[in-house]
Design goal:
By secondary structure, the protein is mainly alpha-helical. Helix content is 64%, strand content 4%.
Length: 95
């Protein structure tokens, strides 16, 4: 749209920037987000077992594994909270 019209959409003007401390966490999260399960209530969290296998395959020490899991798990919780808000808005809109 921006290329075609020359106008910057509001969503791009107000797009938040990811702090550099979270870039690596986001990369891990993206690698693992496809392993999450879905149920009737929506998305479930990324399973620790999937993260553990990923971290061991990438040579993480136990300390690094623990630190990375805490960050990825927190990032995933925030994503799940946002998904729940979006899902509720979609449900409310249909009523």
């Amino acid at each position: 749209m921006q290329e075609e019209t020359g106008l910057t959409p509001p969503a791009l003007k107000n797009r938040p920037e990811l702090h550099e401390d979270w870039v690596f966490t986001q990369q891990i999260w993206r690698d693992l987000s496809g392993s999450r399960r879905y149920h009737m209530g929506g998305a479930a969290g990324i399973p620790f077992s999937e993260f553990y296998l990923w971290a061991r395959a990438h040579g993480f020490s136990c300390t690094d594994l623990t630190d990375a899991w805490e960050a990825v798990h927190r990032y995933d919780e925030i994503w799940l909270d946002e998904q729940a808000i979006w899902q509720k808005a979609q449900t409310d809109q249909k009523k």
